[in-house]
Amino acid sequence: xxxxxxxxxxxxxxxxxxxxxxxxxxxxxxxxxxxxxxxxxxxxxxxxxxxxxxxxxxxxxxxxxxxxxxxxxxxxxxxxxxxxxxxxxxxxxxxxxxxxxxxxxxxxxxxxxxxxxxxxxxxxxxxxxxxxxxxxxxxxxxxxxxxxxxxxxxxxxxxxxxxxxxxxxxxxxxxxxxxxxxxxxxxxxxxxxxxxxxxxxxxxxxxxxxxxxxxxxxxxxxxxxxxxxxxxxxxxxxxxxxxxxxxxxxxxxxxxxxxxxxxxxxxxxxxxxxxxxxxxxxxxxxxxxxxxxxxxxxxxxxxxxxxxxxxxxxxxxxxxxxxx
Length: 324
Ligand code: ADP
Ligand code: F6P
What we know:
The protein is an alpha/beta fold and 324 residues long.
């Protein structure tokens, strides 16, 4: 019997997960392993919801968003009993290594499984870009481009009507998507958890833009900011005379997670997938595969799991200079 590795996707889906699954399966087969797909993340692991994946099963998926394996959030896996059961189920199925494609919570689970002695490798995949051990995770670039397209479109209608817009983007507790979309989208205001900002400051930024003769003002708001877009809008609307512009709110939400992965995410996911299997093959486990300075690297789970990455202060310091 050939040795078997398994792969699962967990947490919020991210464009590029399928490209990673494809790379894991085809690299595994290339190196002489069978690869088992675990449906529906840790939930599927705990119910042994497995299927053997062939090279054909992962054909035609590199360009598809989402994940063919399905993804869930699974509270039972957070319990010690959940981790123990998972290890027993994997061993009973003769699986000798696991690749976990997912974000922060998923990698925390992967780290706990690895700490129990089960060979586990993580692949950084979350649109939030909050994982330590990688400069960028699978899905971030594609999600960012969706947000940018929306912002570009909103600017057009905003200019026609001389309006301000608050555009809320995802990111959970991390402001990266808001910061990057705000800078690349030329926003007048960026509101995120890492840089506390009172509603009055947003009103000031919009008013200054109005007074400088701008036809529109865009505020990009991270969903995890202390004041989300809806509550900021309440403040602004209560002081309409000060803002100058009429104001509208757009919440992008899950739109950012859908859609096809771009070239960057397909390549990143493919490189991560190949490396993850090579790590299992070489017995280098208990680590997260990520990107640092253009190179694919692995970082021990102990250094990254359960922690979150802050935003780049160099990007933050640019905000005030650019919206002139
Ligand atoms: P993401 O991986 O995208 O950050 P979540 O934080 O929702 O998404 O985590 C996905 C899943 O990972 C959870 O539903 C749970 O099954 C598992 N997980 C999260 N935190 C832990 C933990 N501390 N220990 C074990 N498993 C965890
Ligand atoms: O972690 C990815 C993410 O899209 C976050 O940005 C967001 O807060 C969360 O998942 C939404 O989760 P759900 O899909 O369960 O609504």
